[in-house]
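USER: For my understanding, would you kindly supply a protein sequence with its structure tokens?

ASSISTANT:
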Amino acid sequence: MRSLWAIGLALLLGSAQAALTDVTLDNGMRVIVHEDRRAPVMVSQVWYRAGSMDEFNGTTGVAHVLEHMMFKGTKNVPPGEFSKRIAAAGGRENAFTSRDYTAYFQQMQKDRLALSMQLEADRMANLVISDELFAKEIQVVMEERRLRTDDQPQSVLVERLMATAYQAHPYRRPIIGWMDDLQNMTAQDARDWYARWYAPNNATLVVAGDVKADEVIALAKQYFSALPAGALPERRPQAEPAQVGVKRIVVKASAQLPYLLMAWHAPTLKDWAQDTTPYALQILAGVLSGNDSARLQTSLVKMQQIAVNASAGYDAVSRGPGMFMIDATPAPGKSVDTLEKAIRNELERVQREGISEAELARVKAQVIAADVYQRDSLFYQAMQLGEYVTAGLPPAALAGRVGKLRAVTAAEVQAAAQQWLQDDRLSVAELDPQPLDAQPARANVPGVRHAN
């Protein structure tokens, strides 16, 4: 019987045979095409290298607000018509904003790619941001903040922890923005953001699916080449000062259970061919959580019954600095302090004793299998390419990711835990649950889906 490792590697090698084309148009727009002929569909994504980390105090959330406004019409396409045309062609579309980028996508039959490019090129250059439509949409965004952050105690804790853990770096600001900034934002703020960052030389077009690279490149030239490059602002380094001791906060919010969040400053992938620590930290996250036999689940939830859940997470790919995070909810009758001590004991055990070769092999198989199965989706093939190149990494870094993970040693995992999971890099946030007060019902805001 073939092992999961062998099966995953075979799938990966088969996926790697798909052709990848990476070109840059004369106006600076990058075009990446990943050919995958398993189904007659395609996904097209336009990535702008502008996210919340590029914002200024006083206008936090403007990147996300502009994402909303991108669907509100251009000189050529009336408000709401963009989505209607995609739907009429049998496709689906949406967008998302992060700390590092804003991206827009369509999933359609392969023969409708021209429509996708035509519409994206139009709103890259011809967006109309009227005061009237902005006034309506900013209300939608504020309600979105209330629903997804203000009314979610764990989300509030994460937001406050980020504002504490980062002293200077713009990652300390929430992607959706502070409410006060949203309340005082104007249509001109959105227009300024659009003029500053929405240009072909700050964008990457990623197309994946049953397409031919030369035809995609020809369409990209047809629709985007006429758009002039913009004079992009200078991006200055925004290094985070070294932390000099543990930071702790307690957040009081209406909630049923307490909650613990621990975050350590950690490196991200910069030189993919030479870096080893980010890959070791990915394996460490898998050692600590990810399945029923992982250390946090086994020790804290099953054996000691101190927690009802516990997990670790780490993202190696970003434009800015990274965080290695552990979150957990204490079991009834157990304190957050007891839970934190138990987590620390597990980390100290890895730092002191390391991990076994069998444990390393199991986690590698799990991480690699997840990577392979994710690549089975056209959307995530394009998504990963967009994330990597927007972070300044070449497509080769994505193609080589599995090989780098396979090369991680137990000693490297132990060394990464020893070096990075130290108190001088740590911020701790505790949710102190307050009585659940009855919340008055709010009127529905068009465009926002209310939680039940």
